[in-house]
Amino acid sequence: MVIKKINNNELICLLEIEKKFFSNSQFYWMKQLKEMFQNKNYNFIGIYENKILIGYVIVMNIDQECEIIQIAIKKQHQKNNYGSFLIKYLQEKYLKITLEVNNKNKIAINFYLKNKFKQIAVRNKYYNNVDDALILKWSSN
Questions:
Q1: Cα–Cα distance between 53 and 72 in angstroms, integer?
Q2: Listed residue (92, 89, 100) closest to 67, CA to CA
Q3: β-bridge partners, 97
Q4: What pLDDT is stored for residue 129 in this prediction?
């Protein structure tokens, strides 16, 4: 297993994971991914098994902090701690990490709580004016 920055040629592989992982309303299209990739405020970090991209995390950098924009692991590689390996990688690089998650996404919420995130706020009716967004934060101190 290797964790490293994703290169431009691997965006297609990332998009394939994205399409399978998220519903049509949530995944980023190639044009948006390329724009984010070219913006120095974003980092695209991949996790690889046998040189094949099996998951990724996209973060927005804010000094020594970051916000997780998206994280996904290929379905056949889930339940093997790859997501936790990506989170631990971020926790070694940043002092604080924030994210938002749909309050109905219990699997994701439990994943983040297991990785030492704490809920700090709620955005009421944030998703489609129906579901709440939980704001979670991890801090090194």
A1: 11
A2: 100
A3: 66, 138
A4: 86
What are the backbone dihedrals phi and psi of residue 59, each rounded to the nearest 5 degrees, phi first? Answer: -125, 150
Strands 96-102 and 65-73: parallel
Beta bridge pairs of residue 45: 5, 57
Is residue 24 scored above 60 in pLDDT?
A: no
Which of the residue ranges 9-23, 45-59, 69-83, 119-133 would you say has the lowest mean pLDDT? 9-23
Instruction: Specify the pLDDT at position 26.
Output: 55
Distances from the Cα of 63 to the Cα of 41, 43, 79, 89, angstroms: 9, 13, 32, 17
Tens of pLDDT, residues 65-120? 999 999 999 989 988 999 999 999 999 999 999 999 999 999 999 999 999 999 99
Describe the crossing of helices 106-114 and 82-93 by its angle, rounded to 10 degrees: 50
Whole-angstrom distance, CA of residue 34 vs CA of residue 9: 11
Q: Which amino acid is at 8?
A: N
pTM summary value: 0.90
Instruction: Round to whole Å and give the CA distance between 125 and 132.
Output: 5
Phi, psi of 67 (to 5 degrees): -115, 130
